[in-house]
Amino acid sequence: MSLYGDKQVPANEAPTVQVKAISFADVPATGPSGGGATPAGPAGTAPDNRTPRRRTRQALIAGGAAAVVLATIGVTTAYAYSGEVPRGTVVLGVDVGGKSRTEAAEALRADLTRRAQTLDAPVTVRIGEKTAQIKPADVGLAVDVDATVAASLKAEANPLSRLFGSREVEPVVTVDAERLDTELRKVAGELGPEMTVPRVTFTGTTPTAVYPKPGKGLNPEQSAQAVRTGWLSGEPVTIPVVDVQPATSTEEVDRLIAQLATPAVAAPVTVETDKGKLTISPAAIAKSLVLAGDKYGQITPRVDEKKLRAAISGQLAKVEVAPKDATYSVQGGKLHPVTSKSGRQVDTAALSRDLLAVLPNGVGREVKGTLKAVQPKVTDDELPTLGIKEKVSSFTTYFTGGLSHPRSHNIRLAAEEVDGALVKSGETFSLNNHTGPRGYAEGYRDAAVISDGKLVPGVGGGISQFTTTLFNATYYAGLEDVQHKPHSYYFSSYPSVIESTIIYPTLDFKFRNDTPHGLIIDTAVTNNSITVSIWSTKVYDSVTTQWSPRRSITRPETVYLEPGPSCIATNGIDGFTQDAWRIFRKDGKEIRREKFTWRYEAEPRYRCEKKPN
Question: Of 102, 185, 332, 529, which has the fewest CB atoms closer than 10 Å, so is most exposed?
Answer without folding.
Answer: 332
